[in-house]
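INTERNAL TRANSFER SHEET
From: sequence group
To: structure group
Subject: Formyltetrahydrofolate deformylase

Please process the attached sequence and return the structure record in the designated field. Keep the field labels unchanged so the import script can parse them.
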Amino acid sequence: MRPEFILTLSCPDQRGIVHSVSGFLTNHGCNIIDSAQFGDAHSQLFFMRVHFSQEDDSVSEQMLRDEFAQVAQSWSMEWQLHDAHHKPRVVLMVSKIGHCLNDLLFRYKSGLLPVEIKAIISNHTDFYQLAASYNIPFHHLPLTAGASAEQKHQQEQKVLDVINGNQAELVVLARYMQILSNSMCQALSGRAINIHHSFLPSFKGAKPYYQAHDRGVKLIGATAHFVTGDLDEGPIIEQDVERVDHAMDPEKLTAIGRDVECVVLARAVNYFVEHRILLNGHKTVVFN
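Return from structure group:
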C-alpha cells in the first residue's frame, strides 16, 4: 500500500496558490487523488484540502514536510499534513443518555468509523457494561449536584488525565451533560466535538425539545459543534433537521430528535477524522 496523505491549509487569498501546491506535489512524486478549495470573499482567506498518494520512494514524509514548509512560508499558510491511513485516538464522554454513545460504538465496531476508541468517561455508571462489551476502558468520574468550583476543577483534572494519558486526538461529548470550565475548553480547543439536541442557534439550554414543542415548530434538528467556553456557541460542524407536526408530544419529538443527533454526530466525527474541517474565525469550512 502506497503512503497517502491529506494536506489542509489556509492563507490569505491570492492568485497562484493552487498552482503552487499542485506543482510542489507533482515535483515531489505525488499523485492527487482528490482536491477541494474555497475562497471566502468576506474573510479574504483561502482554504484547501488535498488528498494525495506518494509514488516516489525516494521522497520521505519528512522531506515533504521540510520542503513544503518553505512553500507555506511564502504564502503565509497555516497548514497540516496528515497520514491518511492513521486512525485517530478518541475518548468518548457521556452522562445518562446513551443513544449517541451506542451509535458511535456500533459504527466503530462495524468498521464504519476509522478511529481507535481508547476510553469512555462518564459522571455516572450507567454505561460501564456497554463499555465492557466493546472491551473499552470505562472511567467513572462523578460530579455531584451542587459541587464546588474546587471539586469541579479536581474532577476535570482527572478527565484531562485520562484524555492526555491516552494521547487523545479527539474528544467527543456524546451527550455529556456537564458544562465544561473555560480552562477545560481551552485545553481541548479544536479537538472536542459536542452534540446539541437543537438546531442551533434556536432553543439553547435545557430541554430544547420541550421548548420546540411549546413554540409549535414544524422542524426539529441537531447540531454538532466544536466545544468553546461560550456555551453552545462553538463553530458549527454539521446540522440536520426532521419534519414534525402539531400532533406530536415532547416525548415523540425527543425520540425523533435522538435519531437525528446520532446521524449528525457521526458525520461530524467522520469529517474530523478525514480532516475535512478547517476553522474560519468563529465558523468552519467543511469539505464534505
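Handover comment: The CA atoms of residues 104 and 110 lie 10 Å apart. The helical segments are 17-27, 61-74, 99-109, 128-133, 149-165, 182-187, 208-215, 250-273.
Transfer complete.
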